[in-house]
Design goal:
The complex is a heterodimer of chains A (109) and B (140).
Chain A: E1 7-10, E2 14-15, E3 19-27, E4 49-56, E5 59-66, E6 75-82, E7 86-94, E8 99-108
Parallel strand pairs in A: 2-8
Antiparallel strand pairs in A: 1-3, 3-6, 4-5, 4-7, 7-8
Chain B: H1 5-20, H2 28-39, E1 44-45, E2 50-52, E3 56-59, E4 63-68, E5 74-79, E6 86-92, E7 96-105, E8 111-118, E9 124-135
Parallel strand pairs in B: 1-9, 3-9
Antiparallel strand pairs in B: 2-4, 4-7, 5-6, 5-8, 8-9
Classes of the chains: A mainly beta (109), B alpha+beta (140).
Chain lengths: 109, 140
């Protein structure tokens, strides 16, 4: 079971119209690959975040399909074009059905 | 069917390897399958996509990877030598500022990392880079 899952996002506080801003996200998650064996010799069941999405004012920025080969504490960096002030909404989908969300405001002048 | 001693020993070793060996690594067929699922078997150009990966990664548990393919609508990453070849697929939406992304991935050992970009016109581009790994990142 995923514990202490904390999302962290970094987005510039303000930008100019049409600027391409860099977005960085990190979420603490053990990303158990399903390949490792525990001390009892049994395979530890897979438990990963399998999808990550980022939207800006309801428009998709990026939608990532994630497999077990992504490292512990999945980190993603990507670019977004901002034409107006608004909110970035970040969503992570866990194998166990949990959904983690975070958001960030940006002021566009 | 009679077995020679040599065959018997060979079989024994194969069975032992299956039980105690490393986690099963992705076969070439699996990589091919993942590629076909993404591209539908289309030809891939070798330019217009950049894959930045370290030549030598000290720790296979977190290898920084950067990929960019201007204009692409989706980029898939594959690690040919991992137990499961798929790594992740980026689908860029209308608000994306560029078709580029960075992440950190696991690599089981020295292997080729493959990035394939799907362009809006239905064509594909690929880039490959070999990464040497000092400590593998898939347990086992």
């Amino acid at each position: 079971m995923a514990e202490n899952v904390t999302p962290r996002v970094r987005v510039p506080r303000d930008a100019t119209v049409g600027e391409v801003v860099s977005v960085r996200t990190l979420i603490s998650h053990q990303m158990e690959s399903g390949q490792r064996r525990g001390s009892d010799g049994e395979l530890i069941p897979r438990s990963i975040i399998n999808r990550f999405t980022c939207e800006f004012n309801g428009t998709s920025v990026v939608d990532v399909t994630i497999e077990p080969s992504v490292s512990t504490n999945p980190y993603f960096q990507f670019d977004a074009t901002v034409n107006e002030s608004g909110t970035f909404a970040f969503t992570w989908y866990d194998d166990d059905g949990s959904v983690y969300t975070d958001s960030a405001e940006i002021t566009v002048a | 069917m009679t077995q020679t001693r040599r065959q018997f020993v060979g079989h024994g070793l194969a069975v032992a390897a299956a039980f105690f060996g490393l986690p099963h690594l992705a076969s070439a067929a699996q990589v091919e399958e993942a590629l076909n699922a993404f591209t539908g078997g289309a030809d891939m150009a070798d330019d217009g996509i950049t894959l930045i990966a370290p030549e030598i990664a000290e720790n296979g548990n977190t290898v920084p990877i950067e990929v960019s393919a201007p204009g692409a609508e989706a980029i898939m990453l594959l690690a040919a030598g991992n137990p499961q070849a798929d790594v992740c697929t980026f689908n860029f939406g209308p608000a994306a500022g560029s078709s580029a992304a960075s992440t950190r991935i696991r690599l089981a050992g020295e292997q080729e990392v493959i990035a394939i970009a799907r362009m809006p016109d239905g064509s594909f581009k690929q880039a490959r880079q070999n990464v040497r790994v000092t400590i593998g990142g898939c347990g086992g």
